[in-house]
Design brief:
Chain lengths: 266, 266
DNA sequence: CGACTGTTTGATGAAATTCAAGCACAGTGG
DNA sequence: CCACTGTGCTTGAATTTCATCAAACAGTCG
C-alpha cells in the first residue's frame, strides 16, 4: 500500500477527510507524504496499543475516534486525550521506548502506521518533518497544561462547556458541523477526562438544556447558543463582570492553540 | 556513554552539580557535549523569557531554580512546572515558534543557551541527541498528564504530600539531601501549582507537622516519615485498605517516570 | 520604624462528590 | 411477542472537601 491509496476516492488524499482539508490537520502532512503508509481498520473497543507495549511506530488517525488513558496504581483509568482524524498518536512512547498509554477506539476507525525508522529518517533529513514532529509534541504538552489550568480555575459547568466547544471546533476543522455533535465517548469517559463524577456531567447537561444552551438526545448534542457558552467559559466565578472579555479573541487563541502551524503552511 | 564527564573535577563540568552525577539529568548530556555552551547568571525574579517572545534557543538549568507559568484570560498566573539543575527549558516554543510560557527564576541561577541552529544540527545528525530531545519532550507531556491525574484523583493532602516527595526525589537525584528540603518557591507558588488555596497549603503543612510527618520552619521542610507519606499518597480515599499497595513498586515507577533513560544509559 | 510580603489560623459557605434509586434503551432468548 | 438482563444515563438527598472571607502575625527591607 502506498500514499496513493486514497487518491481515487472523493476523500482527501492524505487524511481521509471528506472536505475542508486545505490545511494540515495536526501537522502530520509531511510525515504522510514522506512515508509509505499502511493502514488498518479497528472496531469499537479494540486497542491500538497498551501501556508497556513496545514502541515501534507512530500512528495517524484516518477516521473514527479513540481515547488514550493511563492506569493509576489503584487500577482505575484516567483518560488523558481523545483523538480524531488527522491526529498523531504514539509519541508517548519516546519517553521510555515503551508506550505509556492505552489507546482504545471509540468506534470503527482506521489508522496509518509510520515505522520508527521512517520517523527517524524524516526527522533527520527533512527540516519540515522535524518541525512538525517537534511542534506537535510541544503542542501536546501545552494542551495538557491548558487542561490542567482548566481544572484549577474553572468550575464544572465551565469545563464541560469548554469541552463541548473544543469538540465542536475540532469537528468543524474536519469539515463536520460545528453545531451538531455526535459524541463517540460515553458520559463516563467525559466525566473521567474532565475529572468529575458522571452524575455531575449528567446534571450539567440537563441544566444546560433547560437554559436553552444545548439540546441533548442521548449521544447527539446540538449547540444552540455558542456565544453564550463562550461567555460561560470566560466568566470568572468570583468577578461580577462575567462575559466582559473579548470572546472573539478568546476563540482565536483557542484555535491557534490547536492548529499552530496553519499560518506557516498556507 | 556520556557518563564520564564528572570524573575529573569536584563540581560537574557540564551540569554544575557537586556530586552524584553518574547518570544523565533529564537527558541533556548529548546536547551539552555537542554544543559550545554559553551561560549566563540570573537573579530572583528575573525572567528567562516571556510568553510571546521569539523562540531562539533551548536552555539548560545549571544551578538554582525557576518556574514556568502561563496567563489565563483573566490575567491570573498558572504555574505549570518547576525547573532544577539539569532540566531542559524552552521546548514550549516549538509549538508556535514563539514561547508560550513565562519562565521566572526563584533564586540566583545560571543557565546555558543552545541556539536553535545547534538544536537542529544535533537532532539531524545525532541519533542520541534526537532520542534525548524526543524523550524529554515526551516525558514532559507524561508528567503533565500525571499532574492532571493527581488533581482528578487525589485529595489536597495527597497532592501536597506527593509534591514534597517528588521534590525530595528530584533533589536527591541531584546529590542533595532527600530529607531536608529548602523550598525556593513561595506557598503561593505551591498553591497555584497544585490548584488549591494558599490557606489550604498552610493548614495542611501545619497538620502534617502535628502528625509528625514533617517539620516545617519557613521554607525549610524536613521529611520525618517518608514511608508514611508514601502511604498517604497511595491510599484511596474511598477504600479502607489504605497503604496496602506496594510502596516500593510505586517509588520505582515514580522514579522511572522522571528518569526514563537511566536504564538505557547504564 | 513602618510598610511590605509572606504566612498562619478561624468561621462560614458553596461546589461537587457519594450514596441510593430508578429510568431508557438494546440485545437475547423463551 | 414479551419478559429478562446489562449498560448507560438521570435524578434526589446527604455529606464532604475545600475555597472564601476576615483577621492577625512574622520576618524583611528601604
Amino acid at each position: 500500500m502506498s500514499t496513493s491509496h486514497c487518491k481515487s476516492s472523493p476523500t482527501c488524499e492524505y487524511c481521509a477527510l471528506s472536505r475542508n482539508c486545505t490545511e494540515n490537520i495536526n501537522s502530520t502532512s509531511a510525515m504522510q507524504k514522506v512515508q509509505v503508509l499502511t493502514h488498518k481498520i479497528y472496531h469499537k473497543g479494540d486497542t491500538l496499543f497498551c501501556a508497556g507495549n513496545a514502541f515501534n511506530a507512530l500512528y495517524i488517525m484516518r477516521s473514527g475516534s479513540a481515547k488514550a488513558s493511563t492506569m493509576t496504581f489503584e487500577a482505575d483509568e484516567q483518560i488523558v486525550d481523545f483523538y480524531f482524524p488527522g491526529d498523531l498518536l504514539g509519541t508517548d512512547g519516546f519517553a521510555h521506548k515503551l508506550h505509556a498509554h492505552n489507546v482504545t477506539f471509540l468506534e470503527t476507525s482506521s489508522v496509518c502506521y509510520i515505522s520508527l525508522n521512517a520517523v527517524n529518517a524524516l526527522v533527520a533529513h527533512s527540516e519540515v518533518g522535524r518541525q512538525q514532529l517537534l511542534s506537535t509534541m510541544s503542542l501536546n504538552t501545552l494542551n495538557q497544561q491548558q487542561q490542567l489550568m482548566n481544572v484549577h480555575s474553572m468550575t464544572s459547568i465551565q469545563r464541560l462547556t469548554r469541552f463541548l466547544l473544543d469538540l465542536s471546533l475540532k469537528l468543524a476543522k474536519r469539515g463536520l458541523s460545528s453545531q451538531q455533535l455526535t459524541l463517540s465517548m460515553t458520559r463516563i469517559d467525559i466525566a473521567n477526562y474532565l475529572g468529575m463524577a458522571i452524575e455531575t456531567v449528567s446534571r450539567l447537561l440537563t441544566s444546560m438544556q433547560q437554559q436553552g444552551l444545548i439540546h441533548v438526545q442521548r449521544r447527539q448534542i446540538t449547540l444552540l447558543n455558542m456565544p453564550e457558552m463562550n461567555k460561560i467559559c470566560l466568566s470568572d466565578p468570583f468577578s461580577q463582570t462575567a462575559g466582559e472579555y473579548d470572546v472573539m479573541q478568546h476563540a482565536m487563541l483557542r484555535s491557534a492553540t490547536e492548529y499552530p502551524l496553519s499560518g506557516t503552511n498556507m
